[in-house]
Write a structure and sequence with these properties.
mainly beta, two-stranded antiparallel ribbon, 11 strands, 8% helix
Length: 152
Amino acid sequence: MLSGFRIDTPRNAMVLLGMARGGTMQNDMGSFRVDMMLENPARPGETRTLHSVLVDTRAELSWVPAQVLDSLGVERNNKWFFRQADGTILERWTGTVLVSVAGKRAGDEVVFGQPGDLVLLGSRTLEGLNFRVEPVTKQLVDAGPAPAAVAG
Protein backbone atom coordinates (compact mmCIF):
# COMPACT_ATOMS: atom_id res chain seq x y z
CA MET A 1 0.00 0.00 0.00
CA LEU A 2 1.25 3.50 -0.85
CA SER A 3 1.97 5.79 2.08
CA GLY A 4 -0.93 8.22 2.56
CA PHE A 5 -3.14 6.22 0.22
CA ARG A 6 -5.72 3.48 0.66
CA ILE A 7 -7.00 1.03 -1.93
CA ASP A 8 -10.70 1.06 -2.89
CA THR A 9 -12.72 -2.02 -3.94
CA PRO A 10 -11.45 -2.18 -7.56
CA ARG A 11 -7.91 -1.83 -6.14
CA ASN A 12 -7.39 1.81 -7.21
CA ALA A 13 -5.23 4.09 -5.09
CA MET A 14 -7.55 6.49 -3.23
CA VAL A 15 -6.56 9.93 -2.00
CA LEU A 16 -8.60 10.38 1.16
CA LEU A 17 -9.18 14.10 1.15
CA GLY A 18 -11.57 14.04 4.11
CA MET A 19 -9.10 12.66 6.65
CA ALA A 20 -6.58 15.49 6.88
CA ARG A 21 -6.94 19.24 7.33
CA GLY A 22 -9.01 20.95 4.64
CA GLY A 23 -9.90 17.99 2.47
CA THR A 24 -13.42 16.86 1.74
CA MET A 25 -16.37 18.72 3.16
CA GLN A 26 -19.73 17.22 2.33
CA ASN A 27 -22.90 19.26 2.43
CA ASP A 28 -26.58 18.40 2.25
CA MET A 29 -26.53 18.41 -1.56
CA GLY A 30 -23.95 15.60 -1.69
CA SER A 31 -21.26 17.73 -3.36
CA PHE A 32 -17.86 18.16 -1.79
CA ARG A 33 -14.98 20.58 -1.60
CA VAL A 34 -11.18 20.39 -1.76
CA ASP A 35 -8.19 22.67 -1.30
CA MET A 36 -6.50 23.71 -4.55
CA MET A 37 -3.09 25.34 -5.01
CA LEU A 38 -2.34 27.48 -8.08
CA GLU A 39 0.96 28.57 -9.61
CA ASN A 40 1.79 30.65 -12.66
CA PRO A 41 4.16 28.52 -14.80
CA ALA A 42 5.87 31.77 -15.89
CA ARG A 43 6.66 32.59 -12.22
CA PRO A 44 7.60 29.29 -10.55
CA GLY A 45 7.55 29.13 -6.76
CA GLU A 46 4.86 31.73 -6.12
CA THR A 47 1.59 30.01 -5.21
CA ARG A 48 -1.88 30.74 -3.90
CA THR A 49 -4.08 28.23 -2.09
CA LEU A 50 -7.85 28.28 -2.40
CA HIS A 51 -9.65 26.48 0.41
CA SER A 52 -12.96 24.66 0.14
CA VAL A 53 -13.24 24.74 -3.68
CA LEU A 54 -16.42 23.08 -4.96
CA VAL A 55 -15.79 19.98 -7.11
CA ASP A 56 -18.18 20.22 -10.07
CA THR A 57 -17.85 17.55 -12.76
CA ARG A 58 -20.57 19.31 -14.80
CA ALA A 59 -18.27 22.32 -15.25
CA GLU A 60 -15.81 21.93 -18.12
CA LEU A 61 -13.24 24.40 -16.76
CA SER A 62 -12.17 25.34 -13.25
CA TRP A 63 -13.22 28.82 -12.08
CA VAL A 64 -10.87 30.94 -9.96
CA PRO A 65 -11.37 34.50 -8.70
CA ALA A 66 -9.72 36.91 -11.15
CA GLN A 67 -7.92 38.75 -8.32
CA VAL A 68 -6.13 35.50 -7.35
CA LEU A 69 -4.97 34.91 -10.93
CA ASP A 70 -4.01 38.58 -11.32
CA SER A 71 -1.96 38.42 -8.10
CA LEU A 72 0.02 35.55 -9.64
CA GLY A 73 0.53 37.51 -12.89
CA VAL A 74 -1.43 34.95 -14.97
CA GLU A 75 -1.91 36.18 -18.53
CA ARG A 76 -5.39 36.27 -20.05
CA ASN A 77 -5.20 33.96 -23.09
CA ASN A 78 -8.65 33.35 -24.53
CA LYS A 79 -12.19 34.66 -24.23
CA TRP A 80 -14.82 31.95 -23.65
CA PHE A 81 -18.61 32.13 -23.67
CA PHE A 82 -20.61 30.10 -21.14
CA ARG A 83 -24.35 29.39 -21.15
CA GLN A 84 -26.01 29.44 -17.73
CA ALA A 85 -28.95 27.23 -16.76
CA ASP A 86 -31.38 30.13 -17.38
CA GLY A 87 -30.03 30.54 -20.94
CA THR A 88 -28.03 33.73 -20.37
CA ILE A 89 -24.52 33.89 -21.79
CA LEU A 90 -21.44 34.87 -19.76
CA GLU A 91 -18.17 36.01 -21.29
CA ARG A 92 -14.97 35.29 -19.34
CA TRP A 93 -11.23 35.26 -19.94
CA THR A 94 -9.11 32.15 -19.32
CA GLY A 95 -5.44 31.72 -18.46
CA THR A 96 -2.95 28.90 -17.99
CA VAL A 97 -1.88 27.80 -14.51
CA LEU A 98 -0.42 24.83 -12.68
CA VAL A 99 -3.07 23.30 -10.41
CA SER A 100 -2.23 21.09 -7.41
CA VAL A 101 -4.79 19.02 -5.51
CA ALA A 102 -3.98 16.30 -2.96
CA GLY A 103 -0.36 16.02 -4.01
CA LYS A 104 -0.97 15.84 -7.78
CA ARG A 105 -0.09 18.67 -10.16
CA ALA A 106 -1.13 19.49 -13.75
CA GLY A 107 -1.27 22.43 -16.13
CA ASP A 108 -4.70 23.67 -17.21
CA GLU A 109 -6.67 26.60 -18.59
CA VAL A 110 -8.85 28.17 -15.88
CA VAL A 111 -11.53 30.86 -15.91
CA PHE A 112 -10.92 34.35 -14.50
CA GLY A 113 -14.00 34.41 -12.24
CA GLN A 114 -15.83 37.66 -11.54
CA PRO A 115 -17.60 38.71 -8.32
CA GLY A 116 -20.61 36.44 -7.84
CA ASP A 117 -19.10 33.52 -9.81
CA LEU A 118 -18.59 30.24 -7.97
CA VAL A 119 -15.06 28.95 -7.33
CA LEU A 120 -15.02 25.51 -8.99
CA LEU A 121 -12.73 22.58 -9.72
CA GLY A 122 -14.00 21.41 -13.13
CA SER A 123 -13.88 18.16 -15.03
CA ARG A 124 -10.98 19.08 -17.32
CA THR A 125 -8.74 19.83 -14.35
CA LEU A 126 -9.80 16.60 -12.65
CA GLU A 127 -8.94 14.67 -15.80
CA GLY A 128 -5.55 16.38 -16.07
CA LEU A 129 -4.81 15.43 -12.46
CA ASN A 130 -5.90 11.86 -13.29
CA PHE A 131 -8.63 11.90 -10.64
CA ARG A 132 -12.15 10.59 -10.88
CA VAL A 133 -14.99 11.15 -8.44
CA GLU A 134 -16.14 8.12 -6.47
CA PRO A 135 -19.90 8.88 -6.53
CA VAL A 136 -20.92 6.94 -3.42
CA THR A 137 -18.27 8.24 -1.01
CA LYS A 138 -17.84 11.66 -2.70
CA GLN A 139 -14.05 11.34 -2.81
CA LEU A 140 -11.43 11.93 -5.45
CA VAL A 141 -9.70 8.69 -6.37
CA ASP A 142 -6.87 7.85 -8.74
CA ALA A 143 -8.34 7.21 -12.20
CA GLY A 144 -5.80 4.47 -12.90
CA PRO A 145 -3.79 3.96 -16.07
CA ALA A 146 -4.73 6.28 -18.91
CA PRO A 147 -5.43 4.83 -22.36
CA ALA A 148 -2.42 4.86 -24.67
CA ALA A 149 -2.08 4.51 -28.41
CA VAL A 150 -0.47 1.27 -29.51
CA ALA A 151 2.05 1.32 -32.34
CA GLY A 152 0.72 -0.65 -35.31
